[in-house]
Design a protein that fits this description.
The chain is an alpha/beta fold and 253 residues long. The chain has 2 domains: 135 residues, Response regulator (Rossmann fold), CATH 3.40.50; 107 residues, OB fold (Dihydrolipoamide Acetyltransferase, E2P) (Beta Barrel), CATH 2.40.50.1020. The protein has 8 helices and 17 strands.
């Protein structure tokens, strides 16, 4: 997939690109552009990408000026620190509207949403706008149970009964409320796209936890955060430093 990033904050643009490559290493970022004027010139002289990521406030104005100057048909995922432009965004090719600081799980959901739109667009005569309206009316579907093996038997575990997931020695385990542990055939990356992001958050490379599984949060100097989980882990559980801001944002939603 070929995409373009229109963002005037260099660190934010780089972080978004890293998140995109984490999701799919084959994604090609055709350009990173900081301004309305440069974006207009780029679209005039380059083939359209499959998807654009746009900050609303750029160094020389709002990104909506791009649509006022050229007939842009590229689907857009807006990324912004302001929520007052939602309606305006959905009038100009918007697939989704993500608030900063960007959350990886929400980004994944937005890309998956774009893929569904893209697939349906080529299956029928409906326009992108009608497809987007249809998708926006639907609640996302999340996994509600997992199949596990117990010796020669199979058993289903309801997601509501799972408190966290962790990875050890390249195997992913789920842990239930009553401290039962089972290996599953899912990576944490895959779980990030199948679990409700309001309930579960990937706190580091090895763990994804349920909000209700957190019994205590300990804050240390330099922003370090340790969690007490139920049931307890043998090892201490820390939130990755690069996820602390997103984690706090998740807690407050």
């Amino acid at each position: 997939m070929r995409v373009i990033i229109i963002e005037d904050e260099q660190l934010t643009a780089q972080r978004l690109e890293n998140m995109l490559h984490k999701y799919d290493a084959s994604i090609e970022v055709a350009a990173t552009i900081p301004s309305v004027a440069e974006a207009i010139e780029w679209f005039k002289s380059n083939p359209d990408p499959e998807l654009a990521f746009m900050d609303i406030h750029l160094e020389d104005g709002q990104c909506f000026s791009i649509f006022e100057n050229i007939n842009l048909q590229v689907p857009v995922i807006f990324t912004t620190a302001y929520d007052e432009y939602t309606i305006k965004a959905f009038k100009v090719n918007s697939v989704d509207y993500l608030m900063k600081p960007l959350n990886y799980d929400e980004l994944v959901q937005a890309i998956e949403k774009f893929k569904r739109v893209h697939a349906q667009k080529h299956e029928g005569p409906h326009g992108l706008e009608n497809l987007l309206q249809s998708l926006n009316r639907k609640e996302p579907e999340y996994k509600d149970r997992f199949l596990v093996s117990i010796g020669s038997r199979l058993r289903t575990i309801e997601t509501a009964d799972i408190n966290y997931f962790y990875s050890a020695e390249k195997i992913t385990f789920l842990v239930t409320k009553d401290n039962q542990r089972f290996p599953i055939d899912y990576s944490l990356d895959k779980l990030a796209t199948t679990l409700n992001p309001k309930e579960y958050y990937r706190i580091n490379r090895q763990m994804m936890v349920k909000l209700l599984a957190i019994s205590n949060i300990h804050v240390y100097p330099k922003g370090k955060i340790k969690l007490d989980l139920v049931p307890a882990m043998k090892e201490e559980v820390f939130v990755s430093l690069d996820k602390v801001v997103e984690f706090k944002d998740w807690l407050g939603k």
